[in-house]
Request: fold
Amino acid sequence: MGERYNIHSQLEHLQSKYIGTGHADTSKFEWLTNQHRDSCSSYLGHPDLLNYFAICENEAKARVRFNLMENMLQPCGPPPEKPDD
Reply:
């Protein structure tokens, strides 16, 4: 039983420290938004991937970087409406 408590406390610590790990109340929309933002930031942080995307899209690297930065604002569209309680 003590091991289970230890694992849960470690998980809660990670969830409070890193936003992308989520928590028990994380909605599907929030989780997907975090995943998309993490992916875009990874693409921006690796110049070789940025070059690859620029070649594939036949765009300038600056344009690809700009598009990825814009996609980080609302990567999954506007948030869904929450039901009134």
Remarks:
- Helices lie at 2-17, 28-45, 47-57, 61-71.
